[in-house]
From TrEMBL:
Domain spans labelled JmjC: 391-557
Biased composition (Basic and acidic residues): 1284-1295
Domain ARID: 80-170
Protein name per the record: [histone H3]-trimethyl-L-lysine(4) demethylase
Amino acid sequence: MSQPRPDEFKPPPECPVFEPSWEEFRDPYAFINKIRPIAEKTGICKVRPPPGWQPPFACDVDKLHFVPRIQRLNELEAQTRVKLNFLDQIAKFWDLQGCALKIPHVERKILDLYKLNKLVADEGGFDIVCRDRRWTKIALQMGFAPGKAVGSHLRGHYEKILYPYNLFQSGANLLVRSIESHDTKEHKLQEQAQKQLAQMPDMCPTARRAKRMNLCYFTIPVLKLHLSVVMALNSLQTAPCVPQVDLVVCLVCGSGGEEDRLLLCDGCDDSYHTFCLIPPLHDVPKGDWRCPKCLAQECNKPHEAFGFEQAYRDYSLRAFGQMADAFKSDYFNMPVHMVPTELVEKEFWRLVGAIEEDVTVEYGADIASKEFGSGFPIPNGKFKVSPADEKYLKCGWNLNNLAMMNPSVLTHVTADICGMTLPWLYVGMCFSSFCWHIEDHWSYSINYLHWGEPKTWYGAPGFAAEQLEEVMRKLAPELFESQPDLLHQLVTIMNPNTLMAHGVPIYRTNQCAGEFVITFPRAYHSGFNQGFNFAEAVNFCTVDWMPLGRQCIDHYRMLHRYNVFSHDEMVCNMASKADTLDVVLASAVHKDMVTMIREEQKLRDKVKKMGVFHCKEAKYDHLQDDERQCAKCRTTCYLSAVTCSCNSGALVCLYHINDLCSCSVTNYTLNYRYTLDDLYPMMSAVKQRAELYDDWASLVTETLEAKLEKKKGLPVFRSLLAESESRRFPDNDLLRRLRLVTQDAEKCASVAQQLLNGKRQTRYRCGNGKSCSQLTVEELSSFVRQLYNLSCSLPQAPMLKELLNRIEDFQQHSEKVLADEVPSVAEIQSLLDVSFDFDVELPELPRLRVRLEQARWLEGVQQASTQPASLTLETMRRLIDQGVGLAPHPSVEKAMARLQELLTVSEHWEDKASSLLKARPPHSIETLSAAAEKASGIPAYLPSCLLLKDTIRKAREWLQEAEELQASDGEPMMDSLSDMVLRGQAIQVHLEPLDRLESLMVEVQEWKESAATTFLQKDSTLTLLEVLCPRCEVGNVGSPKRKPKKGKESPKNNKKKTPRLNTLSDVEKALSETKDSTSAMATLEELRVREMEAFSNLRAANESKLLPTADCMDLRVCVCQKAPMGAMLQCELCRDAFHSVCVRDPSDSCETQLWLCPQCQRSEKPPLNKVLSLLASLRHIGVRLPEGDALHYLVERTVNWQNRAQQISQSCNLPELEERPGTPPTLTSWVSGSHDAHNNTQVTLHLLVPLFLYFNLWRFYFQDGANGVRETMTGSEKKSKRHLEREGSDAERRVKDKKHSHKRQKMNKKNLQRRPTSTSTSSSPRSDFSQSDDSDEEMAVCPAERCQLPEGDEVDWVQCDGSCNQWFHQVCVGVTAEMAEKEDYICVSCTLNDGHMRK
């Protein structure tokens, strides 16, 4: 934003703007009287009518014609006009000489000759400035930059242009003629003239002010006085008297020679030689020429009074508007409605102060509404008012009604005064202005802007009127010398910024269409129009104006200014109608009449003492105002005047009797309108009318001004107010003062009673506990003084004084408590309790509350410090946060410092302890112990430090336990070692034994993984311990569910009980609780015994259910728990039967081998040497674990079995054991085996025995050693064996008979009644069972390894000619019908077992 120029106009502050309600707007005088205390402080105010108040414009636009005034803007401003007048004088002076010069430019600016002339005069004159070399100072004062030798230029211009004129004005050139010869003087003058001629610029004629303006430069007539003028003036004083002759002679030299060089003055016909003039003229001037004498006469003529010229054109309203809009639009080069008011305002004041810019506007001012019609509608007017607008006819704000309403004093002026009682119209254009003035008789004025662009106003309050006049006289004294009443001529304006700079208060406003502006008595105001608009104004006077009206008459008398109306006549008119006057107006008239009669009596006595004895009555109210004006002061006479017989038409007021004429005073006549005896009854009548009000006013005044014990009570004031309302006294200053005092007294009484009766608990409170209407102690003290200073007496005043004393005692006690270093909480609380009795805002209360909080906080800190175990970091932070919110105090700051220091130390050690515990790798126990020992001295609860101490304790206990473990002789148990490692890892301390224990754990885990790889089958769900230990859940083998493994649990009771080994978790727990391997072996041995017993029972049960006596349809076998059918398999261990399709994997080898069911085939069968190496590696690790004990026991069982097997082999004289497969036994032969071999075989299937050894033992049992062991059978076994053998023999016979008869015949599936059945188990693991004759589906499956299940009406079968005698589908074993008839067929199993080869 650009900075404003130093000379740019700065708008004054805004005046008040009032927006009355409809109720307030109803009575204009009441509203103006209401706002007067505010508005008269600014001199002017603006009133916006309520919304909807829009009177119609009643003026006839077509018939309104007027001649506007011409306003040249730079002639309006006082200081600018002074400059222009000065330049006019110089221009006139040199114009008479026929010479003109351009005003010189200095530093590219036009030289301000007026300012240069004034500055030189203020410095003492040209000679003194030259002598003291002050031209540089003059240049600086004129605003030129220093250091450019401007002073010498200014001196030259002054000497050429201004110095001769100043000599002419002062008369210093009129010297006495020196005694020297005429020739000598003429010679000197000619030399000086030649010198001046060389310095003189070119001459050129020019006009006066008409050609003052120029676009490029500013010219005026040359302001240089030739020295010839000076010498000619001297010759007027010194030339000898020459007798009058008819000859033409030079008045300088007295010679009539050289007539062709004689100049004849065009004013007086005097003659001068051209060479006698200084400087001499080379040629005779062609134009008019004035001699020095005529020049002096012309320049000394008085100036004409400045005034506005009337325009030569008569405008209609429409034509004037077109001209005004065109001017503004052209000037600002934009549409009129888009020009900002601020821009117009700044431009107006710039133009007003610019000499070089001549802007002329026109203003249609003071147009009589009586002639052209008012803008407001009037009754019986030419403008027809609509029914909706009839309310504006009688509206008080209609300016036609306002001036003559009853409250207006002007209603008692008999004549219609245009502009005062009748409105004037104003048609403005852009820049048209109204100059500084006050209204006639210092009356009110009101202006309404009907329509158009705004009008900008400036106003000064009435009390600053004399100050404004003094400033203008000081700044433009030349104007007031010629026109003392200049400000009453409305032709002079001055920049508000200039007035404000001299201390005059100025206010402004922009009056928009539909708004009123009111000016108050003696308020100077001025302004200008923003553009084309139409306004209307009128004057009015209220009762309060009466004293000012009389003061104005005295002021007019001093200025010799005429009166618009006679003030005395108006007062007498009102007095003559005393019975109808308002009581307030009657009172004001009475006061004015008292002053008037006193002054009139004084003047008449003076006149009589001067010798005027002739008196006569004069009806001055019958004369026109101009016929009864004082010849001296132009005051309109009414009560009296003095005339003289020498001039009956002349009269003077009694103040200027000496200025009437030169006749003797005895010839004067005193003319009077009323005698004093007539005036006193009139005054008495007014007094009687105002008596009621005056008595009431006197009583009110007396009551308001009573002192001390003479003061009246509040009821007296209320009764006076009630009387004013009942008698309808006017709402004037006195009544408002009474009302205000009464209201104040009532408020004070109410507040006093509240202070006396109310307590803090019983009154309304603000959010902070403070009463909304609470007084401070200072306010209470002031309130008490106010009670005693009230105009009325209140009974609460003494009681409040006592309350104030109690409060002051409370304050003293509070100050004492607050001064204590560590105050008591109870003492502060007691003071606060006492304060509730005072309904006063005590400044000590906040301090006491603050101190109470401080004391409570200090107590909390003290209590926390005495209990370090509960002093946590959070507690310290909370106390510090609370302390931060407290007000500063030394005790609090000390406690805060101690607490902050403790918190800092505690946080440091907390963070350090936490970092020590979280360090990776962990610190040694020595480092942690040193830190814990240092932190133990802090008097606070530090969780991390306590955790550090507990960690150190746990670390020491663990190390001690590790030492004991290392010192013990036996091998540590895996569970205890794992538990110890876990506990060591949880301790955040570097423990040296922990690394060794962790490596042991890693080795153990690796060993367990290696053992699991060795023993566990692929995708096995069994654990290593479950595989290695004897089975404890053999009895539940038929159930598909198995109890899950449970973790180790330590028994909680101290009573030792023998654990039940029902589940694997029980076994693991029992093994973990054993102290040595011996105990573990005993536990496993016990489990083995149970396992063997359980397997024996299981085998017997499974074999018994497979006996032929059982009902095959009710039998449930296999994992699917269905009846036997098709190819079946029998487990060598549990002896249960299984469907081949349920348990046989098609990828299994077809070679004959021992077959175990999925429930019995629990693990792999690694070589014994590999297992021994595993056991040796575990012993090398040196850690006991249940898997290791189980493996150890398994190895012992295996070795023992081997020994027993070797013993049996030796005792039975078995051949050398070979590693080849043998023929598996049948169901019958397996069951009837020897007891020892049977047990060993059962055990073998559980142990890690080489397969070749097992097969040899199996062959011995079924083939070579059957007879040797038969004796060992029990009786029942023998009986069962015989029964089975007999059944087997019968079956063999039936099979052989059938083979011989049907061997090469095709078998029909439908005709096949019964499948041949072999009672002996074939070498193939599948077994055939007898089925029902009509079971087609069961007949569809053959014992072939991959039965193709052929379908059709006939299926070809073939029977094995080997030992198994089983039937096979020909297509399944690759035998054609021709081969079946011609050749013997031996199945694969029989071929492998019996050593037969297909022929």
